Amino acid sequence: MSERRPSRGFTLVEMLVVISIISILAGLVLGALGVARTRSKMAQTEATIKLLEGALERYEMDFQDYPPSDGDATGIKGSERLWTCLRTEKKEGPYIQSADARTCDVNGNGDLEIADAWNRPIRYLHHRDYPNRGNPRKGTYRLLSAGPNGIYEEGAKNSDDIVNWDINKPDK
Q: Which residues are within 8 A (CB) of 123 and not within 5 positions of it... i.e. 6 or more apart?
């Protein structure tokens, strides 16, 4: 009678189990990396908005008003105007350096807009140009990034927009 010798290799089932486990672990790791990347971009955009707030306050101290947004309710022309105004050499300017902020040209007109971490424009609105806001607070401005989903939701509650105001408080 012949003796059966134990196999020294892996069976097909064992190999499939190992590959399945590795695939599941890889999926978990890649999912966590995606979330971390999104959070990082959100933090970068929040830092850019804070940088712009500081530059706007210095600008306002010198010129007694914030840069105009040229009557643009979308904030794209406002972003172009903001970049130009904050880079002025007048008074104590420039209020922002080229290396401090990312820029893009979303409408292809050659005028740069200040961009968020997703390379989309950060919208800028002077208080005179807030759309449908009733009586906007004088002497204010709005900065708005579309956030991770890329859809400008005007800073609505529960949106992922990144803004410079508290979206949980209504305008007064």
A: 74, 75, 76, 78, 79, 142, 143, 144, 145, 152
Q: Give the structural domain span for 64.
A: 35-163
Among 121, 128, 117, 166, smallest CA distance to 144 is for: 121
Q: Report pLDDT digits (tens) over 47-63.
A: 999 999 999 999 999 99
CATH number at residue 125: 3.30.700.10
**Rounded to two decimals, what is the model's pTM?**
0.80
Looking at per-residue confidence, does 154 or 112 come out higher? 112
Does some domain include residue 106?
yes
Number of structural domains in the chain: 1
